[in-house]
Write a structure and sequence with these properties.
Layout lengths: L3 E7 L6 H9 L6 E8 L5 H11 L3 E6 L4 H11 L4 E6 L3 E2 L3 H12 L3 E10 L4 E4 L24 H4 L7 E4 H6 L13 H10 L3 E13 L5 H7 L3 H15 L3 H21 L5 H16 L13 H17 L1
Parallel strand pairs: 1-2, 1-4, 2-3, 6-9
Antiparallel strand pairs: 4-8, 5-9, 6-7, 6-8
Helix pairs in contact: 7-9, 9-10, 10-11
């Protein structure tokens, strides 16, 4: 059996794809499957991947119409045959032992999820910044493996809802029918948080194994202007997942606190006029639907976030 299937999403990545494939094919764990899903690229990404595939039979190229990273990852999962599965983005870069260290840790602990550390690489300043918020170490138990019940903070804040710093047992993913949302942005959080909630055996690697490239000229913020409501659809789907598994009553407080946090993060990072549009939706409908409006101040973990929520309410009243 293949040890790890790597699903690599690719979209107009000719600037990065050669270096990315060099790092993946050069991983110290050799028994891997490399599934490259080209999400409708209009540049030479596919041609470059084809050239690599001719020299390395571990590489599989799948061409799809442009439908976003969520759809591409779901398509890649269909081809995965490894014991474990890993989802990567082609503009990041990786330590040469990343896959092997995550795989060995999973095998040692019979883990369903292995989470490792990451940092940001700022392309303007060429500086590395450790992403300490991606793994809240003080909240984790002093033993491994663990599950959500042993984490001493909000389960949705202990780790970030991105997929690429986590190795997953494929059997666990298939058994729970985990899928990525096929929407423009916030398409991996449902998959990640569902996995973290359902897993009984989670462990970590206390090393930085992946470097996330950050370009201040990136168009992600502009993309979010067009998909400003995607986070809300994720929150609704996450709540439904919790209810389907009979877990919502147990995790409701964590969920509602995270819903407030994530809605404020989206609000604070949007530009006008989309920001006003989102505020009106939150106050007019969504805070009620998410169960936030019905809760008293002492229900919320973060005083600052609750304060901003109240300021939004007061702003609307004053305006009226």
């Amino acid at each position: 059996m293949i040890d790890v299937s790597i699903v690599l999403t690719v979209y107009n990545a000719e600037s990065y794809i050669e270096g990315c494939l060099d790092m993946i094919t050069g991983q110290t764990l050799r028994n891997i499957q490399i599934i490259c899903v080209d999400d409708g690229s209009t540049d030479n990404s596919s041609q470059i991947i084809e050239q690599y595939a001719q020299k390395d039979d571990r590489i599989v190229l799948i061409r799809e119409k442009n439908a976003g990273a969520g759809a591409a990852r779901n398509r890649g999962m269909q081809e995965a045959t490894g014991k474990y599965i890993l989802f990567l983005d082609c503009d990041d870069f990786y330590e040469p032992e990343m896959v092997e260290k995550a795989f060995r840790r999973a095998e040692e602990e019979q883990a369903e999820i292995v989470i490792y550390k990451s940092d940001q690489y700022n392309m303007d300043t060429e500086e590395y910044v450790y992403e300490k918020w991606a793994m809240i170490e003080w909240a984790l138990p002093p033993y491994e493996p663990f599950n959500r019940r042993q984490i001493s903070t909000n389960i949705f804040r202990a780790f970030v809802g991105w997929a690429w710093d986590k190795l997953y047992l494929r059997e666990f993913v298939m058994k729970n029918d985990l899928k990525f949302q096929e929407q423009r942005t916030t398409n991996d959080a449902l998959f990640v948080f569902s996995a973290l909630v359902l897993a009984e055996r989670i462990c970590t690697v206390s090393e930085i194994l992946i470097h996330r490239r950050v370009d201040t000229r990136d168009s992600l913020s502009k993309t979010r202007e067009k998909s400003w409501d995607n986070f809300y659809h994720m929150l609704l789907a996450l709540r439904q997942m919790l209810k389907d598994h009979g877990l919502y009553t147990e995790i409701e407080k964590d969920y509602i606190n995270y819903a407030l946090h994530f809605s404020l993060w989206n609000y604070n990072t949007l530009a006008e006029p989309t920001k006003t549009k989102l505020r009106e939706k939150l106050l007019g409908e969504w805070y009620d639907e998410l169960g936030i409006s019905a809760r008293p101040e002492e229900y919320f973990y973060n005083e600052y976030e609750y304060g901003q929520y109240k300021d939004m309410l007061n702003f609307t009243v004053e305006k009226q």
